[in-house]
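Section 5.1 Outputs to date
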Amino acid sequence: MAQHIANGERHHPVLQKLHPLLELTPVIRPRLLLAAPVVGVGPILLALLYHREKDAFQSRLRFRLPGQPEFLRRTKWRSFPDPASLQRRREKILRDFTELVAQVGGAEMSRVEFPPGASDEEILHIVLASAIPSLLP
């Protein structure tokens, strides 16, 4: 298996800051990115990624509490039998993230969607056009 440098030197600094939450490789592609600023914590970020070889999805949650190491949680890669079940999962992810942000006193959430066939350049353009870069340290 070939090694791929995810969001490495060839990528824009914003994408490097988002790694490993948002991963760009020929096999792993982002589909959704959520972010919300929280006073005293910084941004809470969540990404939904698609694995082309496994035909499966994974969500990743990242934030940093003051004086603590960064928290990164990855779910297991999971396949969905049909588009409706994937849509229900996306809606649950959005609800859970919205509830988490509200519980910790977060501000307005930013949401970015990525088309299934988006290139690295298109993904970068979509991220840079959003409010997310302004939330990153």
